[in-house]
Amino acid sequence: MTSRPIALEDLCRYAVARSLFTPTTLPGAIKRLGFVQADPIRAPARAQDLTLRLRVKDYRAGDLERRYSQLAIEEDCLVNYGFLPREHLQLMHPRVARRAWDSKTQGHAQALQSFVSSRGPSHPRDIQAHFDLGSTRNAWGGSSSTTTHLLDGMHYRSMLRVQRREAGQRIYAAVTHTPDERSPQAKAHALLQLVLAKYAPLPSRSLGQLCSLLGYGAPHLGAEIKRALSLARQTLPNAEIDGIRWFWPEGENPAAKRWRLDDELRLLAPFDPVVWDRLRFELFWGWAYRFEAYTPAAKRKLGYYALPMLWRGQVLGWGNLSVQSGQLISDFGYAESHPPPDKALRQALEIELQRMALFLGASLP
Q1: DSSP 56
Q2: For the whole model, what pTM was predicted?
């Protein structure tokens, strides 16, 4: 008996159900996700907290930062900046940056590294007190401490790690990365499998984009990652739907009955794996979601930090939430392809707002 062809509806259901697994422990959720993207904006909470609240039982905003030093995880780079199980670091470290430092910068970095090694976990202000290197232009066009900028570069170049945070500020510690005996080709393959497992199913173009972004976490494996991508496109399970080739991990069947949807409504972080790939978002749900925090206010269509609203496998619209005087304030919009909310949707949204208020330590109006 021949199985039926995989449809776009199967892929959508599969994408939602495999990512929104039954809530588990914090280390268990991070291990299963493989990587949690971080973002400093709190509207109403940081992206990493908004992602984890849906996958960790009884999670509260800030739990990741509070428990970080007791968990086998690291702040580090993959396709962007975030948190990942420590076991994945060996795939990328020691990291070789694309841009080499000049001898002066290298000398300053070695001096800072010696200071942190001898002193122990250090706050940037304490390091700054010993090494006032002036200021430099940052990535946003403003001015920042050269010492702070250098510490960031040292973290990226495997010279330091983030030991914990205090009030959002990184506390740096010395680190020695254990060499990985796998070949560069094997590391590249493992990295590709890591991002595929997190974001699957993926259109071919999106898989290529993620492999390109892996150049952030492993710039020294660029050639090997390109070859791994070429091989993956020949060997991974796949299907072509409406002229687009889709890929997913070995051993999974997007059409299987195990991928079930529930009746919970969820407000997702802008970088949640369910909605991260904007191409896939439009293919699944028929409208364009945009992250507008850096868009001038007059040009925003969805809002400063719009949270996609997922219900029964459909992203119906979005919500903008904030906490004002201890109360959770909400405002919602709906895609043109969806009608105004009915009673069932309103009830599901009310339950989600109750969960969100508990997560934030806020009350409802």
Answers
A1: B
A2: 0.93
Q: How confident is the model at residue 1 (pLDDT cuts 50, 70, 90)?
A: very low
For range 285-300, the mean pLDDT: 96
Please report, as a single letter, which amino acid is at residue 68: Y
Q: If we measure between CA atoms, which residue out of 282, 308, 304, 281 comes closest to residue 292?
A: 304
Side chain identity at residue 237, one-letter code = P
18 or 177: whose pLDDT is higher? 18
Query: Mutual orientation of helices 278-285 and 204-217 as an angle, nearest 10°?
Result: 160
Residue 362's alpha-carbon distances to 23, 30, 44, 326, 358, in angstroms, are 22, 25, 11, 5, 6
Residue 311 forms beta bridges with which residues?
265, 314
Nearest residue to 93 via CA among 170, 165, 191, 192:
191
Angular region, 251: left φ>0, alpha ψ -120 to 50, beta rest: left
For 122-160, the pLDDT digits (tens) are 999 999 988 876 655 554 445 457 888 999 999 999 999
Q: Strands (DSSP E) along 113-199, which ranges?
A: 135-137, 143-145, 160-166, 169-174
Dihedral angle over CA of 52, 54, 58, 63, nearest 10: 20
What's the rounded Cα separation, in Å, for the pair 154 and 97? 10
Query: Taking the C-alpha atoms of 350, 294, 290 and 204 in order, what is their torsion angle to the nearest 10 degrees?
Result: -130
Q: How far is CA 282 from the centre of its chain?
A: 19
Backbone φ and ψ for 33, nearest 5 degrees, come out as -70, -35
Cα–Cα distance measured from residue 73 to residue 106, given in angstroms and rounded to the nearest whole number: 28
